[in-house]
From TrEMBL:
This is Ubiquinone/menaquinone biosynthesis C-methylase UbiE. The keyword Ligase does not apply. It holds the Pfam family Methyltransf_11. SUPFAM superfamilies: S-adenosyl-L-methionine-dependent methyltransferases (SSF53335).
Amino acid sequence: MSEQLSSVVRPWDLVAQGYAETGAAVLAPFAAHALEYLTIGSESEIVDVAAGTGLSSIAAAELGARVHAIDLSPSMIDQLVAAAAAHPTIVAQVGDGQDLPYEDNRFDAGLSLFGLMFFADRAKGFAELSRVLRPGGTAVVAAWAPAAESSLMRALFGALTAADPTATLPQPDSRSLENPRVFDAEMRAAGLLDVRIEQYTAEVRFPDATALWEALTRSSAALAVVRDEVGEPEWQRRSAAAIDHLTVTYRPNTPLRTTALFGIGTAP
């Protein structure tokens, strides 16, 4: 997936409904883990940058926080608003994480789960997150570890290759946030203090091959673009081939692992 995806609205609009319906199967453990780095009370104000369909926002609101959620995709925000209907402490809006519409020193904490990692200008994203935090506020940013280290991603790309021999597992990118040294340096360059980068691995299980395929493909912006480009008949052909492959290679309810890097820092 290109690191420019977060600067283009269309892929995220295409995937918004599928992301809302299937994304939690993989993302919910990471959203819950992110909040373990925060102390949240009824007076806490949190910003959720590139909030997607609101898993982190809703989890924080359920702990009592007042949350401002922002995402570049109107369709993502529509899904978030619908999911957050029972949480009046969540305010959601369309906007750019590289140019946040909030005043300085506004929030006690800032989150960005698997969003800032795709920004065209990550330096601006980190700087903006730091800017809107109160002194001593906590920033928590999550990015995926290399795909090759994830049995979940290897399963997905094995299925993709069965359907399309040109598909390949993404290669490690030492310039991205999957490199802990880059992650650490970019957070420090934004002025954040006491920065640390930690790994967190979650296990996910699926009842069958179809559920695995649907969960991963319907929550992937990159694959939503592929589906749109190749057309529905070809996508359905590829899906059938991929599910056939997974039916052979994946035993139902077998755990698959995937790892994220969490960057944690403190606003000066």
